[in-house]
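Collaborator request log, item 7. Partner lab (contact: R.S.) asked for a structural prediction of DUF2815 family protein to inform their binding assays.
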Amino acid sequence: MNLRRKNNMSQNTKVVTGINTRLSYANVWEPKSINGGKEKYSVSLIIPKSDKPTITAIEKAIDAAIQEGIGKFGGKKPNKATLKLPLRDGDVERDDAAYQDSYFINANSITAPQIVDKHVQPILDRDEVYSGCYARVSINFYAFNTNGNRGIACGLGNIQKIRDGEPLGGHASASDDFTAIDDSNDNDFLA
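Returned to partner:
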């Protein structure tokens, strides 16, 4: 019996990113509401421009999502330039060193992603997957047409952590902020 979760995503619109994809704004453990909307799990995926296989796969999946979404666009294939597209240029849109020489995609889902390690074993320690670590991520592209906004969105699938990376977000660790105190000199701090 096959116990894999069925999904309704087309294989033409699904992509698994390469091993050099970096997580940013990783909200993958608890759903959060953005701008008062529905609670969702979300992450920004930073993909190096040098990862040509992933970028090409994403571009093909976006084209497939446009084709599959013709019904949402009034039955006609729209000019791609008129749509809001999810693959964005970090050099142009972000003043952040982590996004330089990279593209990025914001992906979200109302269901929690499965999060696994390199050996496809579940990761339960929330400190293991964070903004800055590297992961392969399954994503799915789909068309939307809501209140005059038309385009292709990106759904978040599952996450496979590949390796650690420098944490993003500017949060210093306690070991960076403090040095150890010698207990024998407690009087030094009373002055």
